[in-house]
Specification:
By secondary structure, this protein is α+β, with helices and mostly antiparallel strands. The chain has 5 helices and 10 strands, in the order αββββαβαβαββββα. A hairpin with a 5-residue loop joins strand 2 and strand 3. Helix 2 packs across helix 5 (188-199).
Amino acid sequence: MNQRLRIGLIVLGVILLFALGGWWVFRQRPYSYHGETVEPPAPATDFTLTGPDGKTFSLSDFRGKLVALYFGYTSCPDVCPTTMAALAQAMQELGSQADEVQVILVTVDPERDTPDRLNTYVTAFDPRFIGLTGTPDQIASAARPFGVLYKKQAGSSAPSYLVDHTATTTVIDKDGRVRLIWPYGTPPDELAADLDYLLR
């Protein structure tokens, strides 16, 4: 083997060694979520509300799945449909993994959001989504542990009043623990990336 070929092989080996080292370091870096992480993960407070066809659902019914929990309402002009659309797109990006995720919309407007109205609204985004309602006291009890605040907007006229509400989405893992809180406007690809990581 001549000297030039030997040097070339040595240089190539060094380059490959650095490339593999860089790949390994990259693989070992901790994952960076696209929202506020809850450390240590906290058990999600259970609640029971009414869903499609008057059937009752508890949050604990969805153990074994990731849950993306959002509090909003069907008459919301912008924030809620934007959030639902982003979650629907994230589900599409997950492909078959989406069957391991449950998106839940709990209404903050029980006066107008009947189970049928909620079901029509959420399934228009994705047929797997579930909408839940209840009495004002039930909804307040469900929202409080997740830091969700809401209030009918002062000066709004019936029946077209608006409701101011917290616009975050809470991610609950398969063991029923709160892991992540997404701010409003988190892009669908980032939602999908976080869900994909939690599903591994």
